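In the previous lecture we treated proteins in isolation. Real proteins rarely work alone, and many bind small molecules. This record shows how such a complex is specified: first the sequence, then the SMILES for nicotinamide-adenine-dinucleotide.
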Amino acid sequence: MSQSSAHALPSYLDAGHLGPWGIYLQQVDRVTPYLGPLARWVETLKRPKRALIVDVPIEMDNGTIAHFEGYRVQHNTSRGPGKGGVRFHQDVTLSEVMALAAWMSVKNAAVNLPYGGAKGGIRVDPRKLSQSEIERMTRRYTSEIGVIIGPAKDIPAPDVNTNAQIMAWMMDTYSMNEGATATGVVTGKPISLGGSLGRIEATGRGVFVVACEAARDLNIDVAGAKVIVQGFGNVGGTAARLFHEAGAVVVAAQDHTGTVYNPAGLDVHKLLAHVSNKGGVGGFSGGEALANADFWGLETDFLIPAALENQITSENAGKVRAKVVVEGANGPTTPEADDILHDNGVYVVPDVLANAGGVTVSYFEWVQDFSSFFWSEDEINHRLERLMREAYAAIAQMSREQKVSLRTAAFIVACTRILQARQVRGLYP
Ligand SMILES: NC(=O)c1ccc[n+]([C@@H]2O[C@H](COP(=O)([O-])OP(=O)(O)OC[C@H]3O[C@@H](n4cnc5c(N)ncnc54)[C@H](O)[C@@H]3O)[C@@H](O)[C@H]2O)c1
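The predicted 3D structure, ligand included, written as tokens:
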């Protein structure tokens, strides 16, 4: 029973409080009946371990002083240090960062990485700042959250609007404050500063690997299979190229510039070159333009949403004629759409599994930084493929045993691992 007055802001424990954190709480409620005796510990998942709000003041190029809201949330560290990206976006809020941190706990546990979950962000539109303003903001933010991050405590990485350069500034600021070079404090760094080979392509490669595992389970031959991809950036472009190289036929691609369609198959290498020259798939001569809304109803074996959240909704989920949806993006399917796809027999490989290739190679980067011994790209890809295949197998087995979707199965596997660690560690003091 809520004891708050009608005008008070809802407690963060209130699952009716819509938004990403409310959706996350509903997901935890959905999985609780499957946790057996571990359900005793389930409140652990509903409360972030630690949330830090920081003020980030900087001097702007024009001499004025600007203040930005910064956050770092460590949702859970039962299985290891916090791990999760830093987002620079004008819509960042504490509750969004809490949800993103919680989903990192689930993702890291789902693929069995020895990490907890964390996330950070600054509420800012970085396109309105100069490079030197972004650098000052990044450094001040890093200094403010420096009390809770560190190679053995919590390891940030890039997310929306942050990149290898920003990771380099974060690593430098943390290292200057520590008085020692600490490459392992962030991942997604430039190769010259302890970054890992294979990191840029890792998420798209992971999408392709789990898609092949799903294909085997469903008796789909990847060679000759049809694929449609929304988002032709890092994740979607890489996944499309790997499908193409495996003999699949990429028949449609959609991004912010439009949709291109070729029933005989798009030449993915030419399309990638077109995107890098023109900034998007629109205007590609190797296919015809298609209305964006018609993309979702194309008959295909694989649909790869790899752009934004909330793309498959109750409005278009009923039109989807794909056999398999592999979620490259984070949160592309709304909970209502998920139920519709499930009822229509569409096999959905959920984001927490399908796009975990990125954090997996981030983990490899961290391990390489600790030993200062760097692996070849082949070795990295080989280890990534093995880890993703093992994660898929464990989650698919849980889905068969409990007769639940892969998404619910991923949550069961992940929450069980987190709460087992909580239980066996016990409560301190
Ligand atoms: N890069 C990673 O390692 C990684 C890891 C995990 C999850 N993800 C998720 O994958 C998704 C894509 O990330 P990315 O790194 O490829 O980003 P990116 O910026 O390289 O590409 C994003 C793509 O989305 C397209 N897009 C943007 N707005 C669109 C719209 N309105 N309609 C259709 N397409 C639109 C863009 O045109 C672009 O092709 C995001 O949800 C991200 O959170 C990325």
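Summary for your notes: The radius of gyration is 21 Å. The longest strand covers residues 65-76.
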